[in-house]
Design brief:
The complex is a heterotetramer, with one copy of chain A (about 500 residues), two copies of chain B (about 325 residues) and one copy of chain C (about 280 residues).
Chain A (H helix, E strand, L loop, with lengths): L7 E10 L2 E11 L4 E6 L5 H9 L6 E6 L2 E2 L5 H6 L2 E4 L11 H5 L11 H18 L15 H14 L4 E5 L7 H16 L3 E5 L3 H7 L2 E6 L2 E7 L5 H9 L17 E10 L3 E9 L3 E6 L5 H8 L7 E6 L2 E3 L4 H6 L2 E4 L3 H5 L6 H5 L8 E2 L2 E2 L1 H14 L16 H14 L4 E5 L7 H16 L3 E5 L3 H7 L2 E6 L2 E7 L5 H9 L1
Parallel strand pairs in A: 3-8, 3-9, 6-7, 7-8, 13-20, 13-21, 16-19, 19-20
Antiparallel strand pairs in A: 1-2, 1-4, 4-5, 9-10, 11-12, 11-14, 14-15, 17-18, 21-22
Chain B lengths: L2 H7 L3 H17 L6 H26 L7 H15 L7 H26 L3 H19 L10 H8 L1 E2 L2 E2 H19 L1 H11 L1 H6 L4 H26 L11 H11 L11 H20 L4 H26 L1
Chain C lengths: L11 E6 L5 H16 L3 E6 L4 H14 L3 E4 L8 H9 L4 E5 L8 E4 L2 H15 L4 E7 L5 H14 L5 E8 L4 H15 L5 E4 L2 H13 L7 E6 L2 H9 L4 E4 L2 H16 L8 E3 L3 E4 L1
Helix pairs in contact in C: 1-9, 2-3, 4-5, 6-7
The chains are: A alpha/beta (about 500), B mainly alpha (about 325), C alpha/beta (about 280).
The complex binds adenosine-5'-triphosphate (2 copies) and magnesium ion (2 copies).
The site of one adenosine-5'-triphosphate has 17 residues of chain A, from helix 5 and helix 9.
Chain lengths: ~500, ~325, ~280, ~325
């Protein structure tokens, strides 16, 4: 492989945002057919590097060389036509357009001249792509009606359908569950065989080692290492990423469940889910497993007051409750972390501090007037405890890396002191170290007697962290499994039921 | 397009129903409403607003707004009149110059919006004031009259019994509908309104498309100005005061989202007709001038509220 | 079809007024209503909101309603003309009230805007003994009344070489706007100002208020046009020096009379009835 | 607040610079500009626009818009005048009724926007028409005059040499600034404008806050109406035409984002002063009426363009 000419070369690339250096003199080469994993902590600069390669950001210093050609001022369209495509970390789809229209957006001329011809071809080609990948979606569905995971699949299909020589994938699997990840793996191996180079990021160790040929580690904007997979171990990579040795990925936790806190009977919303039943004990972590689109998110929303259940009942501390909105749930001590961070998680233009105190602002006021010093103190506490990587509590959250944004959302929910936490994909896009911190936090909370519902598509996470696992399939509860008595295969079989 | 599709399948079902209801209501109150001549009168009357509304539909779908419509209309109307004087004027020249001036003003709007990232609300508000001043300056503050017969024909003549403004109305509707739904340009406009960053990342020439959108809006305003001047046989420097609000109201009533990314020309047409029918009906029913305003505002709010309820029920 | 069954059915007259937000026009409209009631005629009064296009459309509506006659209070000289043409084409008699159009209607009753401005300037000249500095506050730019009153004032000023026009600016027919304008003028011209002519009473009252607040009213003569209630009161109180009064009552009465004559196909003595202005002072 | 903080630290630095430049320019052209009395005149003149602008700043920051300001102002102005007649009127009653009516209209706006999810643009456009009609109806279309001395004092009197409108202007600025930056309500308003869904999920009573925002806007419009009526000694049913655009322009010029989620009262104040200074300057310089419009629009666009360039440079 080394003998071939590289597809992409980075030469001493440096980037700074308003004076703060983000990337330091990066050198990197990619060869045809190579699958290259780019790993690093949240905020290490992975997305920034990818955007630089694509050409959305131009480097302050250094050069990007694609197929031996140094990149000058080219439009994004020209760059993409020269053979690079990218899956962005934040979903980049147009909600009011259909799957087919999104996939061919910006490339309509490939579909023919006449409007009807284009319409027909888009439909046909998309249907073919979906069929090839075993994705049961209708090309005419509007993207706004898709779940986050399904949207991510559409993004992947779009990048693939561009027939690029180099595909940049910024956390392409962050919302996917086991089944789709298997599919994804198949897809990239097919691409590899066609000679396509792939640079991808992920925070899941199985993927990093499972998919890639080479692994490069970024830390604080420096390229620490770049080595063939065979020449390194998980331990080493993690150490290079976080700067210290990490021996375990999940904290030790003693199960000690107490009284029943939340009781759910026959819960349902026609069309979304039905017949959900469980008791949640104090100090318990209850996992929700299932495939993409199974309806777990909707159940979580119904418990947190975002959706109003139409069937069944919720008993909270032995009282029947019906939350009409999230505010009521929060006041009753129910905390909710959404899977849709960007839409439901934070206020982008607000500072870290303002986001952290948003749900508990009434604790920081007197007669409606804010006590800002107390607020600041609290926010600083969260930043240091959760190791949120930010220039300060006044930094706007939209400028934080994805993982750090997630920590801010987590901090906001913890600040209103919930007794039950509903966590929907809480570690989506979070690095190993931060994951460990969040798991530790969960363990600590459960030790304090708080109950947690963990909705997760990450099977190892689900297996390790939950005491019991409720498996949901097509809106129905198919099994309730004890952690000690089950295995991934069993969970999957119930999930497919 | 069949009825069921309009009612259920499209975003315009609610306003379509509201329009029908309104027509039934008015004709039950006065027999003068549902006559051939009156319906022609309504179509004739809405033509200018419709043309402006079609143009600004593109702008609104792209996530922008254009408050300078009425003033651009005035400038173009005056320019057209100046070139279409009965002594030595030339209609083709008049059309060309007016449309050119409209395109130029629209292009300036687009240019400023794109380059400076200043919100279009304030850019076009500025243009609204500037263009109004310009219309007054080039006409020395006086109506420009004595226009050639062939120019006036545009506003008052007919082709095989169908008044020219109505022909232009239908023509622009068809063209705009086609452009929005069937062309790459239309797709791009929708995409930009839906998620500008995503559109940009997909390689869409966002700046160029936006520029065109504002330019088109200027051209349509100019077309409206030509028609208006021809209809009243005069180029009026203070024509079109407040027309932008009527046009935007029609677009929103027609179901186009104020945030962009979603909308249809059929909806806009229905919105325009809705406003036109109410205006006409209130006059026919001899509702007193002050109450007309109250009723007009009330009906519009009611219609959009019912529409939003209807859209929710459809789900 | 009111023509066929004309004997039994009540006569209907459509009226399109320049702007019912203008008090003077309201007075004309009230007079029309009053005399219509006396003659047992049904009036349909609509407001053109100062838009010629709207006015033309309203006349179109009247035609499609087959009214017996139309009374038009033109928004514009030229631009309202198509309304006349359409009515004539449809064979419906049309009468202009208050101001004129380029296209001749069947009859016209009203007064000449330019004349009112001339009277105002003459009044100022008389008060200032033919010399002094004056300011003119104009109506909304480009509208017929503004254009005519401006023309009249410019013409009239030619007769007074020692009267100097310091500045002219629009107050958009609005009291508050004209008050702000006057405040600014007081800043720039201070004690030089000796007279003010405002195109309507609203603006005259605004200017007067600004002068009163600046305690300069006793040094400045203010005159405006229309004769609305507030202006008459101010004239009586001595704060406004004069208003050029139009006789709304007469205009309304004559317009109805002319319209009825035309409907009944009676020969009309004069197709142009001029109602003179009056200078109303204390 | 020190100068450096305004220039660099805040969003309002650009417009502050533009205002200073404008003042320097005008005073270099006429010595009449930079005098005590003229500066007082300017402050007096901008007071009504400023009050409206402060109110609508909340609305715009929350991601909404209010086009009914001018009409609500007219209704409240007429109502105040009707209750403050010199024969038997009572100023306190007048204030109470006018503010009450303003609050009611604003509350109706808020109610409709929240319950129906209809875009505020169209809701408040409807209210704009309705309220204008209402103002004409309750006043029979005539100015309401002969107001009591104590009412007029509100608009023309002074307290220790400072005109009352200026005192009210400064007072409302301080209150609004405090509410926006130091209270829970202000924080909630900003959060809703920043990301409404996320704010709702975070437990903010979105509907209640929005409702309050529109109600406040109505109350401020009413306050403006009272002041205007007191200033001209008359309740005018057609007062405030187009004031909403002036107020919104001031807010946007002051750096508040049209998409909501960001903005400041200081910015709005500077925006209001900027417009007021230009208006005053153009009159002092005796720029002709037509050109005033062109210059006004041009300067506003230029100012926001320069501001956006300035903001970019600061990064
Ligand atoms: N527009 C911006 N302005 C200022 N700082 C920024 C901006 N965008 C990103 N940053 C900073 O740059 C750093 C790198 O961000 P980047 O998104 O590349 O991280 P990442 O490695 O992709 O992290 P993650 O795993 O969380 O996605 C972060 O510290 C972030 O706060
Ligand atoms: N707005 C919508 N309109 C129609 N269908 C929707 C809408 N939102 C979600 N769905 C569908 O509802 C089903 C349940 O979605 P939900 O997000 O609850 O699933 P999930 O198990 O959490 O999966 P995921 O991992 O994708 O979040 C999915 O099939 C999804 O496509
Ligand atoms: Mg990233
Ligand atoms: Mg989910």
């Amino acid at each position: 492989m080394e003998g071939e000419k590289p597809v992409l070369e980075l030469n001493q690339v440096s980037i700074a945002y308003s004076g703060t250096p983000i990337l330091h003199s990066i050198d990197l080469s990619l060869y045809p057919g190579e699958i290259h994993a780019l790993v690093g902590e949240n905020g290490a600069g992975k997305s920034t590097l990818m955007k630089t390669i694509l050409g959305i950001i131009s480097p302050d210093k250094g050069e990007v060389i694609f197929f031996g050609q140094k990149r000058h001022h080219q439009s994004l369209k020209q760059i993409m036509e020269s053979g690079i495509s990218m899956i962005h970390q934040e979903l980049m789809l147009i909600p009011e357009l259909s799957i087919a229209e999104n996939i061919f957006l910006g490339r309509e001329n490939e579909l023919g001249f006449w409007p009807w011809e284009r319409k027909k071809n888009a439909q046909l080609k998309t249907a073919e792509l979906l069929r090839d990948c075993d994705i049961p979606l209708d090309p005419a569905t509007l993207v706004k009606n898709l779940s986050i995971a399904e949207q991510q699949l559409v993004e992947i299909l779009r990048a693939i359908s561009q027939r690029a020589h180099l595909i940049l994938m910024d956390e392409p699997t962050s919302s996917l569950s086991e089944k789709e990840i298997t599919l994804f793996r198949r897809l990239i191996h097919k691409l590899k065989n066609e000679g396509v180079s792939i640079l991808f990021t992920s925070h899941k160790m199985e993927e990093i080692f499972g998919f890639s040929d080479r692994i490069s580690v970024l830390r604080d904007g420096y390229l620490i290492s770049s080595s063939n997979k065979e020449n390194c171990t998980e331990q080493e990579i993690v150490q290079q990423m976080v700067g210290r040795e990490m021996n375990q990925f999940f904290p030790h936790r003693e199960v000690q469940s107490g009284d029943i806190s939340l009781q759910v009977k026959g819960l349902g919303i026609p069309g979304l889910f039905q017949g959900i039943e469980f008791d949640l004990h104090q100090g318990e972590i209850l996992g929700f497993g299932g495939l993409v689109g199974a309806g777990r998110t909707d159940i979580g929303k119904a418990l947190a007051g975002l959706l109003i259940p139409q069937e069944g009942e919720i008993k909270w501390k032995n009282q029947l409750v019906k939350f009409k909105n999230p505010q009521e749930a929060i006041l009753q001590g129910i905390g909710y972390v959404s899977e849709d961070r960007k839409e439901m998680g934070f206020i982008p233009e607000f500072s870290v501090q303002h986001n952290l105190t948003l749900s508990s602002l009434l604790d920081f006021q007197r007669w409606g007037i804010l006590d800002k010093s107390k607020e600041k103190e609290t926010a600083e506490g969260h930043v240091s405890r959760m190791k949120i990587k930010t220039q300060g509590v006044d930094q706007q959250v939209m400028y934080l890396s994805g993982g750090n944004q997630q920590k801010v959302v987590f901090g906001r929910v913890l600040q209103h002191l919930p007794e039950v936490l509903i966590l929907d994909e809480p570690t989506r896009g979070i690095d190993v170290q931060a994951k460990f911190e969040i798991y530790t936090l969960m363990a600590e909370l459960s030790k304090q007697g708080k109950s947690i519902i963990l909705i997760s598509s990450d099977l190892p996470e689900l297996m390790h962290m939950s005491d019991r696992i409720l498996v949901i399939s097509k809106g129905k509860q198919t099994a309730t499994l004890k952690k000690e008595e089950t295995n991934p295969a069993e969970i999957m079989s119930y999930a497919m039921k | 397009m069949n009825l069921k599709k309009i009612l259920i399948g499209s975003q315009s079902g609610g306003i379509f129903l509201a329009l029908i209801l309104m027509c039934v209501l008015i004709s039950s109150l006065t027999p003068r409403f549902l006559t051939d001549t009156n319906l022609l009168v309504i179509l004739n009357q809405v033509s200018v607003n419709a043309i402006l509304a079609f143009g600004v539909t593109f702008v609104i779908i792209s996530g922008g707004i254009d408050l300078s419509l009425g003033s651009m209309l005035a400038v173009a109307g005056v320019v057209a009149a100046l070139f279409a004087k009965s002594d030595g004027g030339n209609v083709y020249m008049a059309l060309l110059m007016a449309l050119g001036v409209g395109a130029l003003m629209g292009a300036m709007n687009g240019f400023t919006v794109i380059l400076s990232k200043v919100p279009p609300f304030i850019v076009t508000l500025g243009t609204m004031t500037i263009a109004r001043g310009a219309a007054l300056i080039i006409s020395s503050g006086r109506p420009v009259s004595d226009l050639s017969e062939s120019f006036n024909y545009l506003g008052n003549g007919d082709l095989m019994g169908v008044p020219i403004p109505i022909i232009i109305l239908v023509g622009t509707y068809l063209v705009c509908h086609f452009v929005l739904t069937q062309t790459v340009f239309g797709r791009y406009v929708t995409a930009i309104g839906g998620n500008e960053t995503a559109a940009w990342v997909a390689g869409i020439p966002v700046a160029k498309v936006k520029w065109w959108v504002y330019t088109l809006s200027g051209i349509f305003a100019a077309l409206g100005g030509i028609l208006l001047s021809a209809r009243i046989n005069t180029g009026q420097p203070n024509a079109g005061l407040g027309f932008e609000l009527d046009a935007i109201a029609a677009v929103i009533i027609g179901g186009t989202s104020t945030r962009g990314g979603k909308g249809s020309m059929t909806g806009t047409l229905l919105g325009v007709l809705f406003i036109g029918v109410i205006n006409n009906g209130l006059d026919l029913l001899n509702v007193s001038a002050y109450w007309q305003q109250v009723v007009m505002g009330g009906i519009i709010i009611l219609a959009v509220v019912l529409d939003s309820v209807y859209q929710k029920m459809k789900r | 079809g009111s023509k066929e069954s004309g004997e039994k059915k009540k006569i209907v007259i459509g009226v399109s007024m320049l702007s019912l937000q203008n008090e003077f026009i309201q007075q004309v409209s009230a007079s029309l209503e009053k005399h219509a009631k006396e003659a047992d005629v049904e009036l349909i009064v609509v407001d053109a909101e100062r838009s010629a296009l709207k006015q033309v459309e309203q006349v179109e509506n009247f035609i499609s309603q087959q009214v017996d006659a139309i009374i038009l209070n033109p928004a514009e000289f030229e631009a309202s003309s198509p309304a006349i043409l359409r009515a004539k084409k449809a064979g419906i008699p049309i009468v202009n009230v208050n101001s004129s159009t380029k296209e001749k209607p069947d009859a016209w009753v009203g007064s000449d805007d330019a004349e009112s401005a001339k009277m105002a300037i003459d009044f100022l000249a008389k008060k200032l003994n033919g010399q002094g500095n004056i300011l003119i506050i104009q109506g909304y730019m480009g509208q017929a009344a503004q254009i005519d009153r401006e023309r009249g004032a410019v013409e009239a000023l030619k007769a007074y070489p020692n009267m100097k026009l310091l500045a002219t600016q629009t107050g958009e027919w609005d009291r508050a706007k004209s008050m702000s304008l006057m405040e600014n003028w007081i800043q720039s011209y201070g004690d030089q100002i000796q007279g003010v002519f405002a195109h309507n009473d609203e603006m005259g009252l605004g200017a007067m208020q600004a002068l009163l607040d600046a305690k300069k009213k006793d040094k400045v003569v203010v005159v405006s046009v229309d004769g609305i209630g507030d202006a008459l009161k101010a004239v009586d109180a001595g704060t406004l020096d004069a208003t050029i009064l139009q006789n709304a009552e007469q205009q309304g009465a004559q317009a109805i009379a002319l319209a009825l004559d035309l409907i009944h196909k009676k020969p009309i003595k004069e197709s142009q009835v001029l109602i003179p202005f009056q200078v109303k002072t204390k």
